[in-house]
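Moderator note: this is an archived Q&A kept for reference. The question asked for a predicted structure of one protein chain; the sequence and the answer are reproduced below.
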Amino acid sequence: MVVRHRLWLSCLVVSAALLAAGCTAEKAPTKDLATDIDEVAATLIEQPLLHSTSIGVVYRGQAFIRHRGDMEAGKPGPPTDATLYEIGSLSKTLAGTLMANAVLEHKVGLDDDVRMYLQGDYPNLQYKGEPLRVRNLLSHTSGLPNMLPARANTVLADFTDHRTPGQLNAVYARYGQADFLRDLHTVEIAGMPGKEYAYSSAGTELVAHILEVVYKRDYETLLRNVLDDSAGMTGVRIRLDGAEAARLAVGYHSDNPMPTTPMPQLPWGASGNVKATVPEMVKYLKFQLAAGPVVAESHRALVKFDPEFSVGYFWNIVSGDALKGVYYAHHGGVPRSQCYIYIVPKYDLGIFVITNQSGDDTAHAMEAAIDTLVERIAAREKAAGSA
């Protein structure tokens, strides 16, 4: 959540030979993929500051999970299938899934004025008569700030400062839903909604509020019920009980050698507070790859910024990549964890990578790991297709 969005096309590098790999096969050999994942995981934790990693892959119906490294430096103890991870802004794609479901059920309209779901007057949530609409929240084109309260944006401006986690905890120590809705009155929309990309976790929190209003259930209960029914995901949590908290992954912020605290609780938690195990995220990969009606709706481009980059229901949609084809991806980051999810229909492939360290170079290291996996799968499929 706290790592600034980048257009991935500027940082994805593939070899010229693999760019030509456009041939796929109905059935491709997978006997070596487990070894490939092991090698990629081992290479990933060789990067400076990275202690451990977990990788989940679903490829043409087969699931793989690998854990490497030690959760704490100098202490034997790798992550396991029971480890609960903070998935940061990947939480937004879950909120997008719920909203796609609400749209298909005709509970919410994409062009609804968000003020339909707010009590009281919010004359500020418009620009020259054009209101903020639900689709603007989902596509990060609302003009809302990244975070509410405003102080949080100041804290996150220097993300790698060792004081940042503590300061963030202080900002949200007593900041609840009523505070968020109060501060929403103070927001100024500076441009026409739907035009400019401006990443907004505040917009995701407002999506959670809208879902609560239309379903008359608290967001976490709604999230767990929908994911259980649609994807068989029973272990997703926003708030943890004592036993669950004991399974939460320890993590490191920037280059601080001491473990840091978890991400503080946000008003609804939809933008960055979801916790899940890797097996639960593998279920999510399978759900995404099955591409049922809700997933298809959530992957629908709501705003196209250029021929190669669009945004759906919080999903970043990248086109024009000769190796990957059209794919759907999202980064997640909190002060002690970063992760990526990639859905690559061209290969019937889903990848989830997470590490318990969060710094300036963490995302690049994970992107390189994902690229390596895709390159190897592409090469394998090309060889199978030409055999």
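Archived answer notes: The domain at 8-386 is CATH 3.40.710.10 (Beta-lactamase).
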